Amino acid sequence: MEISKEQLLQYIALLEDWIPKEASIAIAARGEYIYVDAKKQNWQLSNKQKVKEGSIAEIAMQTCCRTEGVVEDFILSEPYYGIAYPINFLEETGALIVILPPKHPVINPAPYRFLTGKLEEEWRPIPIEKIAYMESLQKKTWFYANKEPYKTSIPLKELQQRLPESFLRIHRSYIVNVAFIDRIIRDFSSNLLVLLQDGTELPISQTYTANVRNALGF
After folding, report:
1. Which residues of 44-57 are buried (b: 16+ CB within 10 A; e: fewer)?
2. Distance between alpha carbon 172 and the CA centroid of its chain, in Å?
3. How far apart are the first and last CA of the chain?
4. d(CA 210, CA 12)
5. 3-class DSSP state for residue 194?
6. Contact (CB, 8 A) for 165 and 146
7. Over its length of 218 residues, how does the chain's per-residue pLDDT go in tens digits?
8. Would you report the helix, strand and coil content of the chain in percent, each value rounded to 5?
9. Chain centroid to CA 100: how far?
10. What is the value of pTM for the model shown?
């Protein structure tokens, strides 16, 4: 059954009271965008365009959970902050996506209680305390729990803002859960390394050495 313009407008009318007038809005269903209102932003989306793998829209539809984060430049000409809400649209799982204008203040949200990551072809919510560390590799973000690598669309800079105090940035490419640190050692060049309980070694860059020493008290 096709979704009529009138039905779409009913959804949009409900949003006017709480979404900033400058925000861009899209609705995705059946794996594609069925409504796009880009306002004045250079949002490179259009009706019938496929939902990108790993986007906040796909994650919201896969997990049926509210998903938010920085939307990178594969959709916009510059990063913006976006929120995707799962919706039941004509008995199908869809997503409502809101992209906030770049200067709109974003209230600091509560720390993550879990992260949803992709392992092979499945999305799995992982409690935050079970995650040993996070890594940025080849423009993708990964987190590791029980030695399993999970992919997420949330960049490290965004994750860092919403992680509990038990997580510590040690490198531009790594954030580690202090609860999983076994010890801190030096390599042959006297650079500091974090040795995790499972034997994983992670470098501490000079940029973050002072912060790590202050946080861990050594």
Report:
1. ebeeeeebeebbbb
2. 17
3. 64
4. 49
5. strand
6. no
7. 455 566 666 666 666 667 777 788 888 888 888 888 876 555 667 778 888 877 888 888 888 778 877 665 444 445 677 888 888 776 778 888 888 766 665 556 678 899 999 998 899 999 999 999 999 998 889 999 999 999 998 888 888 888 998 999 999 999 999 999 999 999 888 889 999 999 999 999 988 898 898 888 88
8. 20, 40, 40
9. 15
10. 0.57
Q: What backbone torsions phi and psi does residue 13 show, to the nearest 5 degrees? A: -60, -35
CB atoms within 10 A of CB 182: 12
Task: Kindly tell me the burial class for residue 6, based on how many C-beta atoms sit within 10 Å of its own C-beta (0-12, 13-18, 19 or more).
Answer: exposed
In this structure, the strands spanning 92-99 and 114-119 are unpaired
Query: Across the beta sheet with 67-71, what order do the strands follow?
Result: 32-37, 24-29, 92-99, 80-89, 67-71
Cα 94 from Cα 89, distance rounded (Å): 6
Q: Residue 165: is it exposed, middle or buried by C-beta count within 10 angstroms (0-12/13-18/19+)?
A: exposed
User: How many CB atoms are closer than 10 A to CB 109?
Assistant: 10
Q: Where are the alpha helices (DSSP H) in the chain?
A: 5-15, 56-63, 156-161, 206-216
Cα–Cα distance for residue pair 19/95, rounded to 1 Å: 16
From CA 38, how far away is CA 22, in angstroms rounded? 9
